[in-house]
Design goal:
Elements: H1 3-14, E1 22-27, E2 30-35, H2 39-51, E3 58-60, E4 64-66, E5 78-81, E6 92-94, E7 98-104, H3 110-123, E8 128-133, E9 138-146, E10 153-161, E11 166-168, E12 173-175
Parallel strand pairs: 4-6, 7-8
Antiparallel strand pairs: 1-2, 3-5, 5-7, 8-9, 9-10, 11-12
């Protein structure tokens, strides 16, 4: 896709009004629409958000992330940011201000969360990307982003099974994963 095409898609995306119940993201020039998440997903997001101390960090839901060099505007399940660096308003939060993004894998988002978004967030230099996977009952913490574009990746990967404590050095805390649920009757995948 050429730069002109990507700009056109980004301009179209800016004015897009999705129907209620749909989450819409721009991922490397592609508009992706998803149905509202499962209850398992929402409970995990709630439990995560409650463990992030508000006096040090803001855990924001439905916050669009600005990754213009990627022609991407993902909407992670949680964006963790130092409240002292937040702009006063705006729909897009620049990736350079973000300390961690969290994606909770759904039955249809495995490839996007483990592959496409991994590369996008690494290219945006987001210090920590946490993939919470209720299919495989694990959390995958990715840190130390390097590279550019589709070749960007994280140098460090730590897998923690649900039920074990998850240390988050970037936030100076440890998450309790014991309350994280799993999807029933979903076929396992091969990631990470």
């Amino acid at each position: 896709m050429t730069a002109v095409d990507e700009r056109g898609v980004a301009e179209f995306f800016e004015g897009l009004e999705p129907p209620d119940g749909l989450k819409v993201e721009l991922l490397r020039g592609e508009i992706v629409m998803m149905a509202s998440p499962d209850l398992v997903h929402n409970v995990i997001v709630m439990l995560l958000g409650r463990q992030i101390p508000i006096d040090s960090w803001y855990a924001l839901q439905t916050q669009d992330v600005d990754l213009l060099e990627e022609a991407s505007e993902p909407v992670p399940d949680l964006v963790v940011v130092d409240p002292d660096v937040l702009p006063t308003s705006g729909r897009l939060l620049p990736a350079g201000l973000i300390t961690m993004v969290v994606e909770v894998v759904s039955k249809t988002s495995v490839h996007r969360d483990y592959d496409i978004k991994r590369s996008i967030y690494a290219a945006g230099k987001v210090p920590a990307y946490l993939v919470v996977d209720p299919i495989m009952a694990q959390c995958v913490l990715l840190t130390r982003p390097v590279g550019k574009g589709e070749d960007a990746d994280y140098q460090r990967q730590q897998v923690t099974k649900f039920g074990a404590p998850l240390p988050l050095e970037e936030l100076g805390l440890e998450l309790d994963t014991t309350g994280f649920g799993t999807f029933a009757n979903v076929r396992p995948h091969r990631y990470p």
